[in-house]
């Protein structure tokens, strides 16, 4: 299967949020994934708050997956604070926030392709630390992240009491 990846714009926020919610509804272990709602997705896709991407199946044009990276700046939610980055370095942190792939399209490397596209853009924009969180028991997501060069740097409670591994990938 071939896919086309395009940058999401602010007007796509509801489509992206709906995809994230749809995938979350299908997950058995609901605490493994904190699903972004439409308000958060809209905020993140606004200029300067983050970037998003949509993947379409090339032949049918069907939406197959979405990805969002948040740009936390020096905010208190910046995962760089959890690992002791300096105030100056916090501005170089991007959160690889949410990826959602519809079940029929899984196993085609879409998560990797979406994230790689975002990484290239973030590197051009000067970001050097890509961070994310994964539930410690979610070996599927954690293994995907490790294969992409991320490493677990800390495990702690986040998002109102959910235990999470914090992963980091440094760009050069």
Descriptors for this entry?
alpha+beta, 6 helices, globular, single chain, seven-stranded mixed sheet, 172 residues
Structure, described:
With 172 residues, the chain is of the alpha+beta class. Helices cover 31% and strands 31% of the residues. The chain is built from six helices and seven strands, in the order E-H-H-E-E-H-H-E-H-E-H-E-E. It has a seven-stranded mixed sheet with strand order 1-2-3-4-5-7-6, sandwiched between helices. A hairpin with a 5-residue loop joins strand 2 (50-57) and strand 3. Helix 1 crosses helix 2 (38-45). It is globular and about 45 Å long. The N and C termini lie far apart (31 Å).
Layout of SSEs?
Elements: E1 3-7, H1 13-26, H2 38-45, E2 50-57, E3 63-70, H3 79-82, H4 87-90, E4 93-101, H5 110-124, E5 129-134, H6 139-147, E6 151-158, E7 162-170
Parallel strand pairs: 4-5
Antiparallel strand pairs: 1-2, 2-3, 3-4, 5-7, 6-7
Helix pairs in contact: 1-2
Short description:
Helix content is 31%, strand content 31%. The protein has 172 residues and is of the alpha+beta class.
Number of strands: 7
Which structural class is indicated by helix and strand composition?
alpha+beta
Q: Helix amount, in percent?
A: 25-40%
Write out the strand line-up for the largest beta sheet, numbering strands in chain order. 1-2-3-4-5-7-6
Outline type: globular
Largest sheet data: 7 strands, mixed
**Unreliable sequence segments:** none
The average pLDDT value, as a whole number, equals 89
Distinct helical segment count: 6
